[in-house]
Structures are given as structure tokens and as C-alpha cells.
Amino acid sequence: MINFEDEIEKFQPSLEIEQAEDVIYNNDLTDVSDILKELLKGKSNTYYDERG
């Protein structure tokens, strides 16, 4: 049988995964929510400017 405790102790993640994880967590990417916030901010400023 497989001894899972021994296997977990021997486990070492590959460097590629660790490197990819660092890149993913350290990137500040624009996503859909950021785009929508900017669009709504521009829309609300335009709305108030036209009323004022």
C-alpha cells in the first residue's frame, strides 16, 4: 500500500509552478471589474456635468 505520509514528506513542487505562482501573484492585471469601474466613473461624471 501507499504510505501517504511518506509521499507527502518527499513531495517537492516543481520550480516552474513556483515561478508561475510568483508571476501571477505579483502581476497587477486589469480585469473586467476594473474596466467597468472606470466606465461607470466616467459615466457618473458625465451625468453630473450635464445636469449641473
Commentary on this structure:
The chain has 52 residues and is mostly helical. The chain has one domain (11-51). The chain contains three helices and no strands. The chain has helices at residues 4-10, 15-26, 32-51. The mean pLDDT is 80.
Show the helix and strand layout.
Blueprint: H1 4-10, H2 15-26, H3 32-51
List the main descriptive attributes of the protein structure presented here.
52 residues; mainly alpha; 3 helices
Global mean pLDDT: 80
Element order, helices and strands? HHH
The counted number of beta strands is: 0
Question: Helix share of residues?
Answer: over 70%
Distance N to C terminus: 76 Å
Task: Please give a quick description of this structure.
The chain has three helices and no strands. It has 52 residues and is an all-alpha fold. The mean pLDDT is 80.
